[in-house]
Amino acid sequence: MLLQRLVEYSQRVNLPPCLYADAPVDWLIDLDVNGAPRGMIDQRQASGKQKRGNLHAVPTLGNLRTSAIMPLLFCDNGGYVLGRAAKNKKDERVQEQHNAFKQLVADCHQQLNLPETRAVNAFYQRHFKRLKVPDDYDPAETVTFRVNGQRVIDLPDVQQYWANYAATAYKIVGDPMPCLVCGQVKPVVRRHYLPIKGIPGGQGSGMSLISANADAFESYRLTEAFVSPICLDCSERALKALDALMRNPDTSLRVGKLVYCFWTRKPTQFSIVQMLEAPDPVQVKQLLETVARGGIPAQPQANEFYAVALSANSARVVVRSYLETTLPAVQRNLAQWFRWQQLHAGDTPVGVFQLARALYFKADDIPAHVPETLIRCTLTGNPLPMSLLQLAIRRNSAERSVTDNRARLIQAVLYSHNLL
Length: 420
Ligand SMILES: [Zn+2]
Fold this sequence. Notes:
3 domains; 5-stranded mixed sheet; binds zinc ion; 13 helices; 15 strands; alpha+beta; 420 residues
């Protein structure tokens, strides 16, 4: 169900085209219509200590890209685009990469015959040596082409060519099978190529949500991603939607090693992230009053609410819990949660991180399951586990004091079991 709901959510966000992803573009090679170079335009801006290019949707192979020769269309690093090895590296394969990149440009132009593809092809055939590469260009940086003001990778025909080419040439899809998400018989993905990034403690290059790389995970003689057959469109939509949820501070909450994503079937003004992360006393008071007045009734057509908790395990994403409920139910449970933790009239509500933090000596010690349990019980209204009480009491005896936040947690556990 998680994948279906993500695919539904993907209709509400602007997705990059098939086999494209948002990534920094550092340089533009500016060409005229005849392919003559006008120069290399620096797109980098200072971000922290580094200079990085603007984010733009570019062709990608995600985590399928290996050290093998695998050119991307019209946009790649200096090895592929300019035949230059990275600094302090002797790479004999750079010329091979560059030739493969030029060949892909030529093949694309032969099929599409657009003015822009003609210009890039002519640049390689006639004008390449005239390009002045700036001294501060690093061959690891990404370069793409602009012809007469038009980025070649933005052309719909080029995007379609890349999707068809990459899906076949790099064997991204296998034989047609019924897709688990949309139910249609379509070629299903061999590996879900889009990595999930941004989970604390995970690999910087990203992790897989769906994968099977050892015999133990395989079934019915199906290997790789064929164990859960999903078509390329559904795979892209689900993973790009999850990426969009994780990047948006209004739909994602990071607590310690955990990322929680929240979304609703229909757009809503209600911010669950703010309520959990840094609850505003005025908004909490309004919520408590509305619920006390019976102002959030169960509606037959209530907006559906979804929540997924993710953590990292080396190269894999761990789905710790997934919840489907309704927005009014969440609002009622949230009001109950704030009542449970309120020590006295006028007590200021506290965010989930501070409560979890109160149970440990330092923030790094918080395991993913503690904030996951706290948030899940808050959203569902289920009793909090007694293990939280145990953790709070242990911390009390270690520190020889009861802090307000531990008192709030102890009270919430007892209330949730009707023991107060
Ligand atoms: Zn599908």
